[in-house]
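Q: How do we represent a protein-ligand complex in a form that can be generated token by token?
A: Start from the inputs.
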Amino acid sequence: MFVGELETAVAAARAAGEVLHRYLSQGITVRYKGPVDLVTQADVEAERVITGMLREAYPTYGFLAEEGGRSEGESDARWIIDPLDGTTNYAHGFPAFAVSIALQRAGEVVAGVVYDPVRDELFAAQRGQGATLNGQPLRVSETQELGRALLATGFPYDLGKLPAALELFGQFVAATQGVRRAGSAALDVCYVAAGRLDGYYERGIWAWDIAAGSLILTEAGGTVSDFRGGPLDIEGREMVATNGPLHPQVVEITGGASA
Ligand code: IPD
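Then emit the structure tokens for the protein with D-MYO-inositol-1-phosphate bound:
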């Protein structure tokens, strides 16, 4: 980790947050990527601002970004960027969306920032140095039993996968105090890190939705994995994220889910 990378990512996330505020007050034009997957001018402009700032500071690094795709850099480092996680919420003016920026080096996420411009909440972590929310240390909840837990999830854009997701959702609704579907995976994972939620699971997600959040959560004491409890592959399109004690109880259920 070079000094300055996290600071640069924080500055880029805040600048993107200003773009999102500006477009929200001006009015947004929506374009559809799929039947339910959409993109706004704000996503595109926020990503342009982020990549511009990061490229200027670290010209040799690669990128994996939601709107701009993949570009290899000359070093083993790359930025993983979601300029607007929670685009559907944003397009409707529902205040749950965030900017997510992670730095991956030699395949490992080493720094992450998730910025909620509505609440001005900035979640950040560097590997081995803990996680913070607006500079204050973050810690996961101590909930031990699934029956006392509040979870979050999301539903896939691929509607063919919806029945399996709803079946799993039903199992968790019955087994917990509640399951929220707020519409921003990056914030869901950070809320587990902050102890506001006890766990999160979802299939159909992308690396840019969860790369930063996964580090923020583990640095806050939480646990991440795939649906069967194996190591998290941020490009594996699925994630279970918990406070730690609940992990075996959650993967016992996700592990039995049909694909
Ligand atoms: C989406 C949100 C949503 C999750 C989807 C994601 P986007 O990201 O994180 O909560 O359920 O899987 O793709 O498309 O708004 O950046």
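The pocket of D-MYO-inositol-1-phosphate is lined by residues 66, 82, 85-88, 154, 183-185, 202, 204-205, 209 (CB under 6 Å). The helical segments are 5-26, 41-57, 87-92, 162-175, 185-193, 207-219, 247-254.
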